[in-house]
Every structure is written in structure tokens, then in C-alpha cells.
């Protein structure tokens, strides 16, 4: 049984040569490769952090809304943890 999730991903674009739109697309493809179905991708833009952690002033925020089995979330998290261009990511169920 699949559930609807929202995944918030913060990209670390400092020093990256890959365009932001391409990174967003690659992450969407990775989420779909884990068995999820993307409903919507919202590019929320660059925002400065309130606290400068790890010498990074801000990040590019992207919201992914998708349907997936609960087991797929663990696989998605593991795959995105390996991506050095991602500052952080978190997930929550929708309604």
C-alpha cells in the first residue's frame, strides 16, 4: 500500500558545476527509481540559513510530492545520503 509523501531536499550548490535544474531532475529520477511516483516538484529557490553550519550560507530548497510504499522511503534516504550535492533531506506523510 502506497502513501503520499512530501520530501524536502536542500541542495548544496556551493562549488557545483551542475545546473540546479539538472540536479533537481536527477533527484526526481532517483526517487522514481526507488519505486515512487512523482506527483509534483516545487522549486522553492535559494534561501539563507539562520545558522551558518558547515561553512555553508544557504541552500536551494526543493519539495518533492510523491506516492511510495513505506519501505521505499528508507531506500530513497540511503540513496540521497550518498549524494554529496545534498545538504539535507527529510520526509513526511501527506494527509
Quick gist of this model?
This protein has 95 residues and is of the alpha+beta class.
> What is the CATH T-level topology?
Alpha-Beta Plaits
Order of helices and strands: EHEEHE
Spatial extent as radius of gyration: 13 Å
Shape: globular
Biggest sheet character: 4 strands, antiparallel
Helix content: 25-40%
Widest sheet: strand ordering = 2-3-1-4
The total strand number stands at 4
Please describe the topology of this protein.
Blueprint lengths: L2 E9 L8 H14 L3 E12 L9 E11 L1 H12 L4 E8 L2
Antiparallel strand pairs: 1-3, 1-4, 2-3
Keywords:
alpha+beta, Alpha-Beta Plaits, 2 helices
Would you kindly provide a written description of the structure presented here, covering whatever features stand out?
The protein has helices at residues 20-33, 70-81, and strands spanning 3-11, 37-48, 58-68, 86-93. The protein is an alpha+beta fold and 95 residues long. It has a four-stranded antiparallel β-sheet with strand order 2-3-1-4, with helices on one face. The longest helix is centred in the N-terminal third of the chain and has 14 residues, at 20-33. It is globular, with a radius of gyration of 13 Å. The two termini are 15 Å apart. The mean pLDDT is 93.
Amino acid at each position: 500500500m502506497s502513501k503520499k509523501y512530501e520530501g524536502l531536499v536542500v541542495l548544496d550548490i556551493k562549488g557545483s558545476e551542475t545546473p540546479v535544474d539538472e540536479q533537481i531532475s536527477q533527484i526526481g529520477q532517483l526517487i522514481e527509481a526507488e519505486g515512487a511516483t512523482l506527483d509534483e516538484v516545487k522549486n522553492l529557490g535559494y534561501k539563507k540559513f539562520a545558522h551558518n553550519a558547515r561553512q555553508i550560507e544557504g541552500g536551494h530548497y526543493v519539495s518533492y510530492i510523491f506516492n511510495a510504499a513505506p519501505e521505499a522511503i528508507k531506500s530513497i534516504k540511503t540513496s540521497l545520503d550518498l549524494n554529496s550535492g545534498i545538504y539535507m533531506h527529510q520526509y513526511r506523510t501527506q494527509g
